[in-house]
Amino acid sequence: MASIAERTFIAIKPDGVQRGLVGEIIKRFEQKGFKLVAMKLIHASEDLLREHYIDLKDRPFYEGLVQYMHSGPVVAMVSASK
C-alpha cells in the first residue's frame, strides 16, 4: 500500500526574490523538515492571482495584494511530507 504524502504550497513573494533571499528562505524551510519536490520561478498573471486569492476577494486589501504579487517574479514551490 502506498503512503499518502501531504503537500504544501510555498511562495517566495516578489520582494524576497528582488532582495536575493530565495536561497536563504529555501534553506530555512529545508531545515524545518520540508522536502521540496517542485520549484518554479514565475511571473503570475493577474487572472491566476485572482483565482488563487479568490477567498479574499471581499477584503479591502484584495486589489493591492493582487497588484503586489503581480509586481515581480515569484518562486512557487511544493513540498511533501509523509
TrEMBL record:
Listed GO biological process terms: CTP biosynthetic process; GTP biosynthetic process; UTP biosynthetic process
UniProt domain Nucleoside diphosphate kinase-like: residue ranges: 5-81
SMART domains: NDK
SUPFAM superfamilies named in the record: Nucleoside diphosphate kinase, NDK
Source organism superkingdom: Eukaryota
EC number, as in UniProt: 2.7.4.6
GO molecular function, one term: nucleoside diphosphate kinase activity
Pfam families: NDK
Keyword Lyase listed: no
Cofactor: Mg(2+)
Keywords assigned: Kinase, Transferase
Gene3D superfamilies for the chain: Nucleoside diphosphate kinase-like domain
Membership in a protein family: Belongs to the NDK family.
Name of the featured protein: nucleoside-diphosphate kinase
Gene source species: Limosa lapponica baueri
